[in-house]
UniProtKB/TrEMBL annotation:
<comment type="similarity">
    <text>Belongs to the ABC transporter superfamily.</text>
</comment>
<dbReference type="Pfam" id="PF00005">
    <property type="entry name" value="ABC_tran"/>
</dbReference>
<dbReference type="InterPro" id="IPR003439">
    <property type="entry name" value="ABC_transporter-like_ATP-bd"/>
</dbReference>
<dbReference type="InterPro" id="IPR027417">
    <property type="entry name" value="P-loop_NTPase"/>
</dbReference>
<protein>
    <submittedName>
        <fullName>ABC transporter ATP-binding protein</fullName>
    </submittedName>
</protein>
<keyword id="KW-0813">Transport</keyword>
<dbReference type="InterPro" id="IPR003593">
    <property type="entry name" value="AAA+_ATPase"/>
</dbReference>
<dbReference type="GO" id="GO:0005524">
    <property type="term" value="F:ATP binding"/>
</dbReference>
<keyword id="KW-0547">Nucleotide-binding</keyword>
<feature type="domain" description="ABC transporter">
    <location>
        <begin position="6"/>
        <end position="233"/>
    </location>
</feature>
<keyword id="KW-0067">ATP-binding</keyword>
Amino acid sequence: MSDAIIEVKELTKQFKVKTAVNKVSLKINKGEIFGLIGQNGAGKSTLLKMIGGLVFPTSGEIHFFNERSHQNQLYYERMGLLIENPGIYPGYTAYQNLELMMIAYGIKNPNQEIHALLQLVGLKNDKKVKVKDFSMGMKQRLGIAIALLGSPDVLILDEPINGLDPYGIKEVRELILELNKKGLTIIISSHILEELSKIATNYAIIHEGEIIETISKEELLHKCEERIELEVDEAKDVIPILEEALNIQHYKVVDPKSVYIYDPHVENHQIIKHLSSQDISIHAISKHKQGLEQYFLERTGRGGE
Ligand SMILES: Nc1ncnc2c1ncn2[C@@H]1O[C@H](COP(=O)(O)OP(=O)(O)OP(=O)(O)O)[C@@H](O)[C@H]1O
C-alpha cells in the first residue's frame, strides 16, 4: 500500500508519431504542492490531462487512493482542474459564471456556495464587474474558483501564472498557498522554476516526455544554496578557527576533508588568511552558486545558454 494520493505508473501518451509522455511514474502525496517543471512542449499539459481524465493514456496506470482511476467512481469528482482556458463567459460576472456552472452540476440554491467561493478566491468585491473587464489574475482566480466547485481533494493547475503580471502572479501564488493550507493537494505546472520554488513542496522535472528528476524542496534549496566549499587535510582542525576567528556559525562538515560554509558575510580571502596564519594548507576553496533556473537548465541540457 502506498501513501500517495495519486500514483502514476509507466504512463505513456502517443500522438501518432509523437510520444508526448513516455513511461512516466510519479507519486504525489496528500498535502503536497507538487510542481511539474518543464520547457514548452515537454509534456506537462498532456501528463496533467491524463491525470485529470481529459486525455486517455496510450498505456500505463493512474491510481487514486490506491485504486485504479477507472475503477474509482469518485475519482473525477474529487479532482478540480484548471487546464488551458476555463469555459468562462466574458459577458457575465464571476457570480453568474459560477451560477451557470453550479446549475450544470445540478447544485440547487447555490447562492451561499458561490459567495463562499468568491470570498475564498478574493473576488467578492467584484460582483458587478463583467469577466471581460477582469485582469488576467482575476480571470485565473475565477478559473480556480470553477475548479474548486464540488470541494475537490486535488487541484490540478496547468501553468496558472502564464501571462500574468507580477501583481497577478502574487495573487494567484497566495491563493494557492491558502488552498493548500486548507488541506488541498495541488499539482501545478510551470516552465519557470524560480516561480514554482516560491510555493512547491516537491518537484518533478519533465523533459521530452520523460521525468528526469524528482526532488523535494529541501533537496533543491540545498543544491542551489550559495556556499563556500573548502577542502583541507583535516576538516576538524579548521572548525575552531572558522567559529572563533571568523564567527562562522552556519557550516557543514560534508566529509573528513571538506567543509561547506553558508555564512553570506564571509569571503574566500578571509578564510585563506586565517587558515594560512595557523599553517593549515588549503587544497581547494571555491564559491558555489547555482540559481534555480541554472539548475533547471543544466538538468534539461541547456545550461550553456
Ligand atoms: N493532440 C495532440 N496531437 C499531436 N501532438 C500533440 C497533441 N497534444 C500535444 N502534442 C505534442 O506533444 C508534445 C507535448 O505537448 P504538451 O502540450 O503536453 O507540452 P507542455 O509541456 O504542456 O508544453 P506547453 O508549455 O508548450 O503547453 C508537444 O510536442 C506537442 O506538440
